[in-house]
Amino acid sequence: MAQTRLRRRSAIPWVFATALFLSFWAIFFHAPAGEHSSDNNLLFYFASADSPLKASSVPLTAGVVPKRFHSHNDYEQSIPLFKALSYGAASVEADIYLVNDKLLVGHTENELSPNKTLASLYLDPLVSLIRSANVDRQTGSRRGVFETAPFTPLHLLVDIKTDGPSTFAKLYSALEPLRFMGYLSTWDSHMMSTGTYRPSLITVIGTGNTPLESVQALGYDFNTPRDIFLDAPLSALPQDHRNMFNATISPLASVDFGSTVGLGWIAPAIGRKRIRRLVEVAHAKGIQARFWNTPITPTWVRKYIWQILLDEGVDWLNVDDLPGAKDF
Ligand SMILES: *[C@@H]1O[C@H](CO)[C@@H](O)[C@H](O)[C@H]1NC(C)=O
Ligand SMILES: *[C@@H]1O[C@H](CO)[C@@H](O)[C@H](O)[C@H]1NC(C)=O
After folding, report:
1. Name one GO biological process term (predicted).
2. 3-state class of 255 per DSSP?
């Protein structure tokens, strides 16, 4: 008892100090200007869910220009998927765990909840967004999630956190509603010597524990075209003499910025050279490049590094601060 009371009393200055620290941190390092207004737009969008205006006249992404930035750990945003789309992120990431035969979304096992599934947070909303985008259309190509760029595919990066083969198999079946509607980009080995790639509205790319073998196994018969691709290890591409990682397997290759460039950015010539070398190898294979784990704060360092990456031809910025990326 005495101990509890003591702990409570001494907690107050800590709470105070933490609050003070956080407010300073928010003022100096954060303060993304557009954040609140845009969240309000989103809330409006949800509030008006049964309004007849919702689907046809006020699409979520009205006026939003999609850009090549990737919403890292997207499920941690205040409103997963929708917030990223409303800022124009053309790529979103969901980490998945196979638990009791369900695909749960979260960063660590402690964050998982039985109602936060890949279907409830991502797959079902994507199906309904695409349905509403095409509700009045009888003919012509189907439109995707971006109102202003209806044929820009959305990259859905699925980071497998549990056992590779079994989680992959469950992911494959969870994608059936999108597959059935023809919404997934596919590759199959038929028709041409390099096979045929058919871009569609959503390109699913497995990362984390996604097994190369499971992705390789798809695409060789008409019933199972390859519609889950692999986020290749960017730093392994220069040594990939057997061309195991090529555009038919991997539209995208990624690497940890910290371990490949590290503090090289402080001596920009060195950092730039490391980045450029990897990007050149990837592009020669027709693969896009992404560096994750880029510095987040302070903002000027983050922007400086984003600029270096873009200058050197990197295709995707890895982003936590969606408003900051939209205005970059
Ligand atoms: C999900 O479950 C949590 C409790 O586990 C609950 O608080 C929350 O309202 C549920 N959300 C939905 C959308 O059902
Ligand atoms: C692409 O990679 C796959 C295996 O990952 C391989 O089977 C195929 O031959 C490669 N294609 C080319 C053109 O090298």
Report:
1. lipid metabolic process
2. strand
CA–CA gap between residue 38 and residue 45 (Å, rounded) = 11
Tokens of 16: 């105070």
Per-residue pLDDT tens over the stretch 279-322:
999 999 999 999 999 998 899 999 999 999 999 999 999 999 99
3 assigned to some structural domain:
no
Ligand at shortest distance from the CA of 216:
2
* CATH at 94: 3.20.20
State percent of the chain over pLDDT 90. 66
- pLDDT at residue 136 tops 90: no
Measure the CA–CA gap between 216 and 19, rounded to whole angstroms. Answer: 51
Residue with tokens 């660590």: 108
The torsion of the CA quartet 41, 86, 159, 228, rounded to 10 degrees, works out to 140
The reply to whether ligand 1 has any atom less than 6 angstroms from the CB of 115 is yes
Number of domains in the chain: 1
Residue at token pair 């699913």: 204
Long-range contacts from 270-277, C-beta under 8 angstroms, 24+ separation = 271/308, 272/308, 272/311, 272/312, 275/308, 275/309, 275/312, 275/314, 276/312, 276/313, 277/238
Q: Which ligand is nearest to the CA of 117?
A: 1
Question: Does 8 map to a domain?
Answer: no
Q: Which protein residue's CA is at the shortest distance from atom 8 of ligand 2?
A: 244
Token pair of 319, please?
């982003």
Residue 22 lies in a domain: no
pTM here?
Answer: 0.83
Domain that holds residue 179: 31-326
Integer angstrom CA distances of residue 279 from 49, 157, 204, 234, 274: 43, 20, 21, 8, 9
Note whether residue 26 is domain-resident: no
Output the residue whose Cα is nearest ligand 2's atom 3.
244
Q: Which two tokens stand for residue 124?
A: 């079902």
Q: End-to-end alpha-carbon separation of the chain, Å?
A: 54
